[in-house]
Amino acid sequence: MHISSKSPWLLKTNSPTIVAVAELFRIDKPAGTYLLLTPCIWSLTMSSIMLLSSYHGLTPPLIENVTQFALQTTLFIVGAYTMRSAGCVINDMHDRELDFKVWRSLQRPIACGRISYSEAWAALIVLSVIGVAILYYGLPWQCWWLGLASLPLIFVYPLFKRFTYYPQIVLSSCFNWGSLLGFAAIFDLPWRPMAGLYLTTFLWCMIYDTIYAHQDKKFDIKANIKSTALKWGSKSKPILYILALVQCLALFDSCYDAGLIGQTKMFSTAGMLTFDYLLFRMIYKVNLDNPANCWHYFRRNVKYGQAFTVGLLLEYFYQLFKASTKEEEDDNSNRRLE
Question: Which regions span the lipid bilayer (predicted)?
Answer without folding.
Answer: 34-55, 75-94, 115-138, 144-160, 169-187, 193-212
